[in-house]
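Practice problem: predict the structure.
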Amino acid sequence: MTRRTWLTIAAAAPLLPAQSEGAARKAAEKWLALIDQGNYKDAYKQGSRHGHEHATFEEWEPQVRAMRDGVGAMQQRNFTSAKATKSMAGAPDGDYMVLEFASAFAKKAKASESVMMSREGGTWKGCGYFIN
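Answer:
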């Protein structure tokens, strides 16, 4: 390895976590858009296999629908943070990202959304969603 090659690799290495966070955030926002539209079937299909192992669509959909019906239509969503982790309760070790959003809904002016994403085959997929 030449010195020039080593410097290129060293300079690029710090970008990887930010790139990963950006990819997870983009995937989470697309997944949330499906939920915002009430398109629960496609949101479930695009979710992680870990999520599918814990709940069938018939179990998952009424829970998400009830949560969203309780707060009403999406009004505003602002990204606040992301945290990478290698483990999540009830899931095997892997690459996970927990994203937080400050949100406003028609029936709840101030809310916090937590979105858990799992990287599977190089793609980020939704594996959990909560509104506080």
